[in-house]
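Quick question, first post here. What does this chain look like in 3D?
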Amino acid sequence: MLLDTPICDFGWKAPDFTLKNPNGDVFTMSEHLGEKGLLIMFICNHCPYVKAIAARLAEDTKLLMAEGINVLAVMSNDYQAFDADSPANMLRFAEQHGFTFPYLVDENQHVGKQYGAVCTPDFFGFNAQGELQYRGRLDDARLQDDPNRVPELVNAMQLIAATGKGPKQQTASMGCSIKWR
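> Answer (accepted):
Ran it through. Tokens below.
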């Protein structure tokens, strides 16, 4: 089912969480909330929208991380029902697309529900105080690879890093619904 994300609830405080990656390494959100902010993305492996943007997502997040903006990805889908999203397949998907950010398993789907994530991809851009400042899309290219695309997520996170505030105008991300149990 195709869904759009809600508009940004500016100032909403990010709930802390601790999740593991498929290798069992532990990551705590508050430890990644850096002085230039934090991007939390809800993604999965089987969604055609995530597959279509995976290369651009890898490129954009590498740029953000090089600028000191931290990035975490969370996979909240019920991977018992959707084996393509299993931890083993998460490792393969991340390697295949060159993801350098931590890709975390939301085993009980608690984090996805706490954040109100609705689709994959769903982007949450936070300032250094953990206040939501961006809930938009990756770029204006949609499912296409467009060399002239506007990298809306990168632009928003750079603005948040510089000013603590996100852009007032944001276009909702769209994608497949999260597969809840």
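The helical segments are 29-32, 48-66, 87-97, 110-115, 152-163.
The longest helix spans residues 48-66.
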